Amino acid sequence: MTAARTRYALALDLQDDPQRIAAYEAAHQRIWPEVRAHLLAHGVTAMEIYRLGTRLFMLMEVDPARYDAHAMAEATRTDPVLQRWEALMWTYQAPTPWTPAGEKWVPMAKIFDLAAQ
Q1: CB-CB contact of 6 with 89 (8 Å)
Q2: pTM value?
Q3: pLDDT averaged per 10 residues in sequence order, the chain, 117 residues
């Protein structure tokens, strides 16, 4: 029996600069250990990021018994190492045209599920 998981699909853009895009991808080849520990500690069980041009797509799976988006965000805001990571990432990232002010990764609407057909 597999544990229940919740999946989130999120979007964000990158700045349209080949050097920044390359640097962003390089940073994700080996994320900081503190970032990895933070994700795992807050119930993130799997995370993948895909890129098409400047658009990023993140697929994140979480353990619903352990994941609390608000608690995770608060822990990010209060941890100086995570703040440095987020500040560095923001030098490469850009909001999508649909991103509310002050936010970064935004949830995407699920419009199709083959398993539900």
Answers
A1: no
A2: 0.91
A3: 83 98 97 98 98 98 96 95 97 97 95 95
